[in-house]
Description:
The structure is a single chain. By secondary structure, the protein is of the alpha+beta class. It is built from 2 helices and 2 strands; from the N terminus they run βααβ. A two-stranded antiparallel sheet has the order 1-2. The termini are far apart.
Amino acid sequence: MSKKYKLVYFADLLSIPQDRLADCLAELPTILEAARVVYEMNKVVMPSVTPFDVLPQATWVDDKKNTLTINLGVMEKSHD
């Protein structure tokens, strides 16, 4: 079974074994490119959307497949 790493903070990269880090970093540009497209599309219909609304976290799957899965949804915001 493939190991999964939740990436919320930059420091979360430290949880990835050193010998697997290069593969993770090699996939980050693809993740960010996809998130940017989703962000730009969302800004058209929701001008107040923020990058955090679109990509609050990512999960890197160490499966050596070099594939990307995007799960889209709506984040609830608290209104204080």
